[in-house]
Amino acid sequence: MPIQNRTQRPEVPYLNNLHMAALVVLINLPLAFLFQYGRLLTTKDLLTDAAICGWTTVLISLWLAKRAVGARRGQGTLSAQVPYSRLMQKLPHDLLSLSFAAGIPVAALMWLITLALLRFFPDTECTFMRFLVWKLSYATLLALRIITLGIFRFVQPDCQEPTDPPQTGLQTVKNPLPRRDMLLRLYQSVTADFGMNLLLGLVLGGTLIRGNEVVLMPVYQSNVWISGLILGMILTVLMVRPTLAAVRQLALVGALPPANKHRRMLFLFPENPWLFSAVLLVPVMIVSSASLYGILKFFGFQTLNFFQYFVVRTLYAKLLTKPIESLAVQRYR
Question: How sure is the predictor about 5, in pLDDT bands with cuts at 50, 70 and 90?
């Protein structure tokens, strides 16, 4: 690829925000030790931390997003074609005002989510290490989302100054705001996973029919590794393969930034999404089995009812999506 094209298509942080999210998490880490270390946490402690962490994560993530966009705007390498968003342009573009406008509802949302989970898993003793894992997990997911939305806000035309150079980037900027079709796909994936579990339960004994009653058996820590292997197969078909196919389609239309250097190891993965998924099948099954057993062991869950386990599975699947997407981007670019 010519050098000129490489400079015209730098990697916009839509696909390169893992390092920024990691920095957000590292900043949250010492705060956890400073305020919560050395004691058993109460419900009040967890709710207070969720609200504070929600706002601080928004502030740091937006600062990183604005810094990344500003550096590329100064070089004239932002995308020349940016989706216009009337909603985004109604938000403030100065960092402090935007952090309050976004941080307050996010803090309230994190408070509500934490309260719902505490009521859904009422018997869990929240030690500091369990709290730390939970905090870092939701801070990572939240940072990734806020950074993406922050970038979309700062690339809007109203953030450009008259003295800024013309933007000549060729990369595609996607609108990350939730759309009806995205919410519909999320609903379909959740209901498909729910139904798949019920059907597999009939075969494997997790769902029993007694007369006119359907009994959903609990999941035990001792045999959750079997459920993890099955989950790995389901995720490979319902999540991994569609993710690989979607990223490959972006590559075919030139929407991925070029690779800075070739990595020979990536060529071991097939280009075809079905074959790529087949290669990942066994690793995803092993990781899923080990992860689910580790989660139940770490948080002290000896048994979970069907709905509690479904929440754990759904959160795990969400965490797995990002590394799969990152691997796909590195392979297909």
Answer: very low
